[in-house]
Amino acid sequence: MINHVDEAYLKLCQYILDEGNAKGDRTGTGTWSTFGYQMRFDLQEGFPLLTTKKTAFRLIATELLWFLKGDTNVKTLIQQRNHIWDEWAFEKWVTSDEYEGPNMDHFGNRAAKDEQFAVIYKEQMSIFQEKILSDDDFAAKYGDLGPVYGKQWRSWPDAEGGTIDQIKNVIHSIKNNPNSRRHIVSAWNPAEVDDMALPPCHTLFQFYVADGKLSCQLYQRSADVFLGVPFNIASYALLTHLIAKECDLEVGEFIHTLGDAHIYKNHLDQVNEQLSREHRALPTLHLNEEKTSIFDYEMEDLKIEGYDPHPSIKAPIAV
Fold first, then answer.
1. What is the domain partition of the chain in residue ranges?
2. Which residue positions form the known binding site?
3. At which positions is dUMP bound (predicted)?
4. What pTM does this model have?
C-alpha cells in the first residue's frame, strides 16, 4: 500500500541522500543538506502520521497543547512524560556555574558513541528531571527555555509594553475575514532570538480558506529530516484540524516548505532502514466534539484510530 504522506517524506529523504551537500553544522555532527524543498499533504486523505516508523502522537499532541497554552517551561512536559525538550534545558544546567557533576560537553554525540558515558549521562539527566519536578526554584531557573514558541504565539511583546496573542488573532481573522492574506503567525522574533534555548526552527505559518476548507503552510528554516520533520508534519496537521473545527471549516492541505533540510550523518543508517519499509494505511484523527475552543483541549480530547506503523527507529539527537 502506498500513502501520499510516507511517499512524499521518503522522496525527500532519498533526494537529500542523492543530491544533498555535505555541510558542517552548529552541533559538530555534520549533515547532508539541501535548501528549499516543499511537500503537500491532503488532510482529507488521512492524518499524516508516518507509517514507515512509529511516530509518537502523544508527544506531538502534548507539545502542541503546551505551545498553545503559552508555556515555555519543560516542567509541564516532564509531568506528562514528554521529554523532547529536556536536552535543551539540561544543557542550560550542565553549562552553569551551579552544576558540579561529571563533564557533559557534547553529551548527545558522546552518549551515542560511548556506552560508559551514556550511563553517566542518563544518571545526570534523571537527576535533572527529578529536580525540575521537585524544586520550583530550580525549575524556574533551569526548566524555562526562554521566549520560545509558546511565548511568541500567545504573548509577542508589543511596542507599548503589552503583548499580542497571535493565535487568538489569527482565529478571529479566519472567522471574520476568511479571504484575508494576513492569516499569519510568526515565531521568529529577532529581538528575542538570542534569549531562546533554541531559535525557532518552524518560524512562520499562514492559513488559507477556500471552498469551506482551511489549509496551512509552514515555513521551516531548519529541518532535522529524520527526527524532527515527522513530528512537525503531524503537529501542524493537528493544529490545522483544531483551528478548522473552531472556525467551522473542513481541513484542506498542509504545505510544508523547508529551508535547510538536512539528514545528520549519524542518522544515515536509520534513514536507509526506513527507506526499505513498505507504506501502510494512514490513521484517522478524532477530536472531542464537545470542545469548542482550541485553548480548552487536553490530551484525552485527541484520539488517533487505525494506526498500525512499523516499529520506531532510534537515533541520537543533535543539541
1. 4-72+147-305, 73-145
2. 26, 181-182, 221-224, 232, 262-264, 318
3. 26, 181-182, 221-224, 232, 262-264
4. 0.95
Bridge partners, 137 (sequence order): none
Q: Rounded CA gap, 131 and 90, in Å?
A: 11
Q: Tell me: the pLDDT tens digits for 260-276?
A: 999 999 999 999 999 99
Q: Is 279 helix (H, G, I), strand (E, B) or coil?
A: coil
User: All 3 cell numbers of residue 26?
Assistant: 552548529
Binding site for dUMP: residue ranges? 26, 181-182, 221-224, 232, 262-264
Q: Which residues are catalytic?
A: 201
300 close to 290: Cβ distance less than 8 angstroms: no
pLDDT digit string (tens) for 56-89? 999 999 999 999 999 999 999 999 999 999 999 9
4-72+147-305 CATH fold: Thymidylate Synthase; Chain A (3.30.572)
Query: Residues 315, 266: contact at Cβ < 8 Å?
Result: yes
